[in-house]
Amino acid sequence: MAKKWFESTVIKIKNESPTTKRFWLQVGGDEIVDFKAGQFVTLDLPISDKRTKRWRSYSIANAPDQSNILEFCIVLLEGGSGTTYLFEEVKIGTSIKFKKPAGGFYLPENIETDLVFICTGTGLAPFRSMLWDIYNNKIPHKNIHLIFGTRTEDGILYEKEIEDLLEKMPELKYSVALSRTKNLPEKKYELATGYVHPIYQKHFSEVRNDVNFWICGWSHMIDEAVAKLLKEMGYDKRQIHYELYG
Fold first, then answer.
1. Who has the most CB within 10 Å: 44, 81, 88, 129?
2. CATH, domain range 114-244
3. What are the backbone angles phi and psi of residue 11, rounded to the nearest 5°?
4. SS3 of the chain: helix, strand, coil, percent, to 5
5. What is the residue extent of each domain of the chain?
6. How many angstroms separate the CA atoms of 82 and 244, rounded?
7. Which residues, in sequence order, are CB contacts of 85 under 8 Å at separation 6+?
8. For residue 10, how many other CB atoms are within 10 A of its CB?
9. How far apart are CA 76 and CA 85, in angstroms?
C-alpha cells in the first residue's frame, strides 16, 4: 500500500501573472507518486501548531508522467496564511510534505461525449493537466471547449502554451472572458468582455445529450454555472461535474 505522506523539495518557482505563481515540487524517494489528471494534493505547511490548520489543497497542474515532479499554479489570497507562506517564504530548496493525490474530479476512462471545461483563475490547473494527458497519451476524444475567465489580459494563464495546443489539437476550442476589460486585444482565440457564463450559454444554448460540462472555480461561480445549466438551459445534472477552486 502506498504511503499516505510524501516529502518533496521545491525545484522551481515562476511568476505566471501579477498575483499567480507556478511551483514545481520534486518528490523524494523511489516510490512513484501516481495520480489521475484533475486530482489534487494536500500540502502540510508550517503555518499553525494545529495539524488540520496547516493543510492546504491544490490541483496538480501538470499531466501524469511518472517523473515525480508536481506542478501547481497558485493565486495569492489576501490575508491567506497558506498562500502568504508560499509566496513570501518558500524558495528553491524548501521542503514540503504532502498527502498522496486524491479527488474524483477526473475524466472517465472512455471519453464518449464532447467536453466543456469552464474555469476561472487557477481553476484552469486541472484542465491543463487533462488536456496534456489527452494529448500526450493520444487518448481518443471528441470536441473540447475550454472556457476561461479572469479580470484582465495579464491574468490569462498559460496563454502561449494553450495557443500551441490549439495548433496541435484541432478538436480544441478556447474562449476567454475578461471581466474588467472593455478594449479587447487581438488574439488567436475567442475573446469576450464580462464573465464566462454568456460564452457557454451562446455555444450550448440548444440542449444536447452528447456533451458534459466540467467546472472549476470559486463556489459562487460554480453555483451560478450549475444553476444556469440546470434551471435556465435545461441540462441534466448527470452532465455536470465540478470542483471547488484550489
1. 129
2. 3.40.50.80
3. -110, -15
4. 25, 35, 40
5. 5-99, 114-244
6. 17
7. 45, 46, 47
8. 17
9. 10
**Topology of the domain comprising 5-99:** Elongation Factor Tu (Ef-tu); domain 3 (2.40.30)
- Chain centre distance of CA 35: 15
Per-residue tens of pLDDT for the chain, all 246 residues? 456 899 999 999 999 999 999 999 999 988 999 999 999 999 999 999 999 999 999 999 999 999 999 999 999 999 999 999 999 999 999 999 999 999 999 999 999 999 999 999 999 999 999 999 999 999 999 999 999 999 999 999 999 999 999 999 999 999 999 999 999 999 999 999 999 999 999 999 999 999 999 999 999 999 999 999 999 999 999 999 999 874
Specify the 3-state DSSP secondary structure of 147.
strand
pTM of the model: 0.96
Q: Using an 8 Å Cβ cutoff, are 121 and 91 in contact? A: no
